[in-house]
Predict the 3D structure of the following.
Amino acid sequence: MSFPTVATRPFDDQKPGTAGLRKPVARFRVPHYLENFIQSVFDTFPKLAGHTLVIGGDGRYFNREAIAVLLRVAAANGVRKAVVGRDGLLSTPAASLLIPAVGAAGGFILTASHNPGGPDGDFGIKFNVDNGGQASESQTDAIYTRSLSIERYSILPESGSVDLGAPGVQQLGGMQVEIVDPVRHYAEVMQRCFDFEAMGALLRSGVFRMRFDAMSAVTGPYAAEIFEHLLGAPAGSVLHGVPLADFGGGHPDPNPHDAADFVRLFMGEGSPDFGAASDGDGDRNMILGPGMVVSPGDSLAVMAANARLIPGYKEGLAGIARSMPTSRAADRVAAKLGIPCYETPTGWRFFCNLLDAGKVTLCGEESFGTSSSHAREKDGLWAVLFWLNLLAVRREPLPAIMRKHWAEYGRDFFLREDYDIPDAARAADVMRRLEAALPDLQSKDGIASADSFTYTDPVDGSVSRNQGIRVSTRDGGRMVFRLSGTGTRGATLRVYLERHEPDVSKQGAAAVTALASLSSRARAIARLEELAGITKPTNVT
Ligand code: G16
């Protein structure tokens, strides 16, 4: 069969970042921009023709228009069947789980994750392969290379369209399109991982109050089904549960800065017993209890230490992986359990080889991401259910669980400071000079080591260089510097600070206090004031 083709010219800015191609909506609206990128994926993966694809997004502005284009390009590239979430919705973890479940050769997830949405916000698209994980670095490099020389794309005429709201099978050209319930399969997988009876009993006990903030993003329908319907939590336990195209004008990132109002609910009298929030596409999570936000590195460590209490993990863990800038709290648990702990570059895709090879069971990142071998993406609601299951089994308040954990392993104080630098070239210069200063730094007083992180994948031997600068101090502190790979305007320098505190009497301090001197030291090392005129971070999380 031959398909209509359209002549086009390459764009030079289609290099995927940490997680897919993210740009302002206006950029995606430039004629041919979206089609070029999608065709570059089909050209890089010619075997998609004749197979099934999963398609869905976080419901942000431009989601439906993009899916309509994607379906027409997919049909013209010979895809046999597209499985699409109803109304174009699929959270990132739900899409990732659905890909292998329906035997798809891959999937497109339309999201810019935690970036703001709306006509002036961001949009994004990422391609995941047949195991449900994001395309690897070499594969995204190949897509980018293809995008630089593309001269035509195939697309069905605009007359072909699909009703995204109508469950069941429709036809688009030679391609079948099946519209599926976005929640059902995901909820089934969660019921296999966790003890729904114990969690339901806790939520219905009348003495335990939970609040989940969906931040007007994609997890609303998932959370309503799982917490309120399947587990019987009182109506109103899920806040901001209706997905909105602009996330209600908010920044759908579950962290103490962007979810400050939600965090306040937990900081005084009458705090709920347990709280959690998720981001735009449902892969991030923040965990809270009365008077505290659990830092992501601590969350991973507590999960690892308690995994045997949870049905899906009762056989124990093969290993743990964390991204390099994530605190080393999980390393201490791994050492005690006698299992390996891998340190990978930032980006969930780096965990996938380890998961596929059975080397790790739990993975986590400082950017409020945690997940396990059940999926190949990070999974926000999975993490919330893990904690809820843990609370239901241990029947102790969350702060008590944290304090006992710190007493046993020591506390790893952790903070991430973000410095927005409007001029990306200047930010790159800060990093270049920092790298050039490494030999000098290594011999400075109080510095134990300083290097640029290179990762060699233990499964396929691939090497990823320049994944951030690590500086360790002799008193057990660590500073990590790297540029964000998910922003769409200017640049953000991320500075990660951590320090281990074994003394129980000092573990109750606020992280900002415990890390204050490391913070000013990091600014001085990066010469931020001198090189970029910066004296304080834009955000601290
Ligand atoms: C993405 C990746 C994560 C990564 C995060 C932070 O998250 O999937 O693995 O940790 O970006 O990236 P950066 O520090 O480069 O901005 P998400 O939730 O945006 O897909």
Summary: Residues 18-19, 113-114, 279, 283-284, 323, 346-348, 365, 367, 369, 484-486, 494 surround 1,6-di-O-phosphono-alpha-D-glucopyranose (CB under 6 Å).
